[in-house]
What we know:
By secondary structure, the protein is an alpha+beta fold.
Amino acid sequence: MAEYNIIIEKGEDGYLISEVLEIPGCHTQAKTMDELLKRTKEAIELCVQVEKGETTLEIKFPLKFIGIQKIEV
C-alpha cells in the first residue's frame, strides 16, 4: 500500500475536484467528499495499473511531493 498526496478544490459548478500530485493527469470529481475520495482511490488504482504495464498506456510518475506554500504578491 502506498500513500499519495491530493489537492482538493471546489469548482464553480460546486463539484469537488481532486488531483493526485505524484501522478500527472490523475484527477477526478464528485459532488461530496466521500464520493470524491472513493473516486480518487479508483483513479489512483487505474493509473498504477497503467504504470505496471497491465494496460497498453505508459505513464511515468516523475514527481515527488515537497509541500504547499502560500505567498502574497
